[in-house]
Amino acid sequence: MGVLSPRSVLRYVSLIKPTQLFLEGVLMRKLFAPALVGLLVLGGCKSSDQSSTPANGSSPATAPAAVQATSISGTVALRDQIPLGAEAKLTVRLVDLSQPEIAIAEKVQPVAGNPPFQFTLDFDPAKIDPNHTYVIEAMLVDGDRRFMPALNSPVLTGGNGATAQVVLNAEATPGEKLKEEINKVRSNSGGMKRIEGSYLNDQVSVAWDAFVSEGHVRFARVITDRGEAGRSTVQYAFKDDRPLGVIAGSTRIGWDESGAAILNEDGKGGQLDDAAVKAYQEEAARTLKMAQEKLPSPKRP
Questions:
Q1: SS3 at position 234
Q2: Domain residues for 93?
Q3: For residues 283 and 19, what is the distance between their CA atoms, to the nearest angstrom?
Q4: What does the pLDDT read at residue 11?
Q5: Contact at 8 Å (CB) between 135 and 153?
Q6: Domain for residue 128, yes or no?
Q7: Structural domain count of the chain
Q8: Predicted local distance difference test score (pLDDT) of residue 299
Q9: pLDDT, tens digit, 9 for 90 and up, residues 148-162
Q10: pLDDT band for position 9 (50/70/90)?
Q11: In a domain, 12, yes or no
Q12: Spatial contact of 151 and 167, defined as CB atoms under 8 Å apart
């Protein structure tokens, strides 16, 4: 074999170099292909694991547990220590706040002794939705007075148990509300227009004044002088041109819109009889008429 010329050597090298590069590429692909497959498999597993976990890293929420209790027990206390009558009754209800007008369970019981009063209320747990809010409602009725709760007493769901402690506030009776209204009319009479009059009747001297607001008699005072028998003052409150109430010393009488007496205090811890109440009502009506006759005539346009 002869000696190759420089040009032949260069040509030979140029033919060998691509072949070498091609073989090296095939070898590298064979070496790295399994590693790439492994990385893809691991990446897929990690992605799968991440997709099954919530974005915030917390575990999936679990449904609220069903209620197991079948009864609720508790106490009812009174914020105001007001003596109760023998006929006082306590009503306890279990209600869903989404439908408070429907009682899931209800019980009415008499009360005896001093508060707090104990109660036990049975219910059907199948009627309880763990996702709803339930409360105990209590009301105590003693004659015309009611005791009502100021706050809700949640039970059973939302982390609450099967016991409740309820505190009731006393509401004003209709008579107490009327008494307050009569006192308010009397207090406001100083800013009203005043009219007055007097007369003699069977050796009795009577002087009176009345107070007018917006053309209506609202309050009147009648002073009766009986000479040696002494003097007396009776005050009258009116509303919508009808008798509202009477103040005579420590006696308080009042009537509702229908004319029924809902305030009756004789000032001695008792009540007046029906005849005395009716006499006061008739005298109030006469006083109102007497004052109305003194009202100035409305101005003509």
A1: strand
A2: 71-171
A3: 133
A4: 52
A5: yes
A6: yes
A7: 2
A8: 62
A9: 998 999 999 999 999
A10: very low
A11: no
A12: yes
